[in-house]
Structure formats: C-alpha cells, structure tokens
Amino acid sequence: MRIAYAVMGYGRGHAMRTAAVLPALERNHEVRVFAGRDAHEMLCTDHDSVEIPVIGYQYGPKGRICARRTLRHNAPKVADLLVAGPRTRAVWREMAQFAPDIVISDSETYSHRFARHHGIARIGFDHVGIMAFCHCDFAPGDALAGRRDGLGYRAFMGDPDRVIVSSFYPAKPRHERVRTVGAILREPVRQASPSRGESVLVYLNKGAHQYNAAMEAALRACGAPVIVYGTPERGQRANLHFKAPSQNGFIADLAAAGAVVSTAGNQLLSEAIHLGKPVLALPEDAVEQRLNAEAVRRMGVGTNASLHQLTPGVLRTFLERADDYAQATHAHRRDGLSEAIDLLNGDIAALGRGARNSPGPLAWLTGAY
C-alpha cells in the first residue's frame, strides 16, 4: 500500500509522534512523508520526506500569539487553499506524483483536501482532533472557544474516514469511528531509564518569542540548576544552561530532571509523565494548550501558570510540591504506541480494500486533476 503521511509543521510535537509510528508502517508499506518546515527538518534525515507549506501562529513583540499578524501572514495561504490556487496545486502535484492509496494526516490540511478532492481514503491521527471529535473538560471559560476551535479544525481537515486521537489524558469520543489511544512515545523515550536529579528542564516550543525577563528572573531564583531548550541562546549564565536542539541530549536531560517547566504541547507532557516528571505547564494563548495544562492540574501530575508572567513564588511553590506531583504520574502512564499501530494497520487494511486505483504521476498533464 502507498501511504502519504502528512504532518503539521508548527513545532516539533507532531514530528515526534510521526517518528514513533513510521518505522512500523514502513516495514509493510511504501510511505512518503509530506511535512511542514519544523517537522520536515526532524524527519527528512531518516525518512522519505517532502517539505510543504505550513499555516502557523505568528507572535507580537511581547511574545504572545498575535491574531492580527497570524491572520495577515496566513491569509494568502488560506485563500489559496480554499480555491485550490497555485500554492495548493503545487503541493497536490507532489502528492499526485506519489499516487497514494491512503492518506494519514497529523493535523495537516493540504493532504486532507487533496484526498477528499480525489476520493482517497483518509485517516486522521493527531491530538488536536480531541476538540473536534471528543468530549473535553476545557479550562474555565474555554468551553465556547473550544467548540469554535473544534469547528475550525473540521473546516480545515474535514471528517476523515477514520480518526485516531492520541492524548495523555482520557476523553470520550463523540462517534464510533473515533478511537482514542494514550501517549505516542518515541523509542528513545521508551528506552530511557529515568532518575530524579536536581535540575529543572525548561522547554519552550517557540522560545525566541516566549523567553522573557520575568521567566529568567524566576528561573535564576529557583535554587536549582536549570537546562533550557527552545531559545536561540547558548551557553551558561548563572544557574542557567541554554542548549541547542538535540534529540538524544534532550531525552537524556528529560530522563534525569527533577522537574519540567514547559509550554503545554501534548507530546512533551506525555513524555514527561511517562518518565515520572512533575510538570509546570505554561500554555500558549491557545485553547488546546490550555486544555492540556488543565489536564495536568486535574490529574495531579503538576500545575499550570502564565507563560508570560512566571513569578519566583509560583515556581518555588511548584518545586516544593514536586515530589507529590511525581508520585501522581504513576497512575497516569499509558503508552499508546502499540495500540495506535494496531489501529492504523487495521484501518489501512479495511480502507485499502475499497481503495480506488490512485492516479499516476502524469495525471496533471492529462487533465485528470
């Protein structure tokens, strides 16, 4: 079976989930990855990957997601997408040349629209779909915004033939074609031997915008060595050690950390809980991240705080309770990798039986597209 596996390219969490399942799929199928920038950079070394455009957030001068800049930056891409303009057709041409039998999408919209337009079976496999396809316990005041974002997700992604939602917290599916699984953990994370050291591991998914003076003051005052990933800075400053991206280095530091302070992406929170790490979640200005951060608090594996106004007192209180939070992680570890692979293989087999003959690479020239 020829599988186009498309990955949202904003941040690295989508790519990490993809990297965990690709080896199992590649053993039995011909797989080509279509990924936005951040994901493509992570996946292209070990997998057949084509870079495609990404629709992502833009930031204001104070490190907050800026709706005006996001709209202005993405409006031409969205307009092109809605009318299947030149940029969209270029992506579709790449996909048509591969001629997939099935499309699997991790929050990636070009692939969903390509598959829907050309009658190719679709599997949605991500975390963000939890707002569109599951009943969620949103953070206070976010119920309407969550419903809005769920509808927006479905407007861009449509309704796939099958849906798999991966999450570190449980949620009840709205439909029988929706299945939920636990965290999708990379093999190096699954093989790691965790210990509780003294260091605080900090990860910011867009640290160039998010790291600020208030956060630095709180981290300097915490009384522990701090390792920071996700900013452009490098080297040592007081008790802070700024490091460059490194998958193996990051996992080693995560496994040895005494606590984690991070933006509230599902993937890192999943890995931290699996390794028994207490988490101080700092959600971005997005409903999905606030949903994740609220789950951290509700499960008792950590707490949450403002990304933009982290104070020494909040950080100190979190660290004082770190042992209790770490103990709570034992009840919430759920490795969903095997379950997800079984579901994917079952869906591929079932949908593949009804797959049409996918168009060949000359379909654009003959007018089929």
What does this entry show, briefly?
This protein has helices at 13-26, 37-43, 67-82, 86-98, 109-117, 130-133, 143-157, 187-191, 207-210, 213-220, 247-256, 266-274, 287-299, 312-320, 322-328, 337-352, 363-366, and strands at residues 2-7, 30-35, 49-51, 102-106, 121-126, 134-135, 162-166, 172-173, 178-181, 200-203, 226-229, 235-237, 240-243, 259-262, 279-281, 302-304. It is of the alpha/beta class.
- What is the total tally of β strands? 16
Radius of gyration: 21 Å
Q: How can the largest sheet be summarized?
A: 7 strands, parallel
**Count of DSSP H/I helices:** 17
In percent, how much strand structure appears in the residues? 15-25%
User: Structural class of the secondary elements?
Assistant: alpha/beta
Classify the helix fraction into a percent range: 40-55%
Distance between the termini: 22 Å
> Average pLDDT value?
90
Q: Which consecutive residue ranges, at least 5 long each, have pLDDT under 50? A: 356-369
Side-by-side strand order of the widest sheet = 3-2-1-4-5-7-9
